[in-house]
Design goal:
By secondary structure, the chain is α+β, with helices and mostly antiparallel strands. It has 3 helices and 7 strands, in the order E-H-H-E-E-E-E-E-E-H. It has a single domain, classed as Alpha-D-Glucose-1,6-Bisphosphate, Chain A, domain 4, CATH 3.30.530. The protein has a 7-stranded antiparallel β-sheet. Strand 2 (about 35-40) and strand 3 form a beta hairpin. Helix 1 (about 10-20) crosses helix 2 (about 20-30).
Length: about 130
């Protein structure tokens, strides 16, 4: 399992909304500078599906990151299963005006675990910057 985390200086409501609403996800869900999140569909409910279309800025490559939510506890926990059956979870621990967000997930076999950890930490770091600056 890979775990990434960060502490965000904002309310739990704001962090939750920015993590879950498509118009916000498109702004921070970037692991590598020459990629972007082109489309987001997100049915945040148990059994609901999510799909992020990730694309290179030059249009040469894209892929869909998708799965199903297996557990959703409002303002607290999101668990999911990806289409390749890997699982993950995101926890939100709030303390006053800060939120510690922690994501744990099963890595793929195609890429090194250290690279996947770096990519996901970059995404969490981008979320922090986006939330704290908007």
């Amino acid at each position: 399992m890979i775990t990434v985390q960060n502490t965000i200086h904002a309310s739990i409501d704001k962090v939750w909304d920015f993590w879950t609403l498509p118009e916000h996800i498109k702004k921070w869900n970037i692991a590598i500078d020459d990629w972007f999140t082109q489309e987001v569909d997100n049915d945040l409910s148990e059994g609901g599906k999510f799909k992020y279309k990730m694309s290179k800025k030059d249009g040469s490559l894209s892929f869909d990151f998708e799965g199903i939510y297996t557990k959703v506890e409002n303002l607290s926990l999101i668990e999911y299963r990806l289409d390749d059956n890997r699982t993950g979870k995101v926890s939100f621990e709030h303390n006053g005006n800060t939120v510690k967000i922690t994501e744990t997930f099963e890595p793929t076999k195609q890429d090194s675990e250290s690279m996947q950890e770096k990519w996901c930490q970059t995404v969490i770091d981008n979320l922090k910057k986006y939330v704290e600056n908007n």
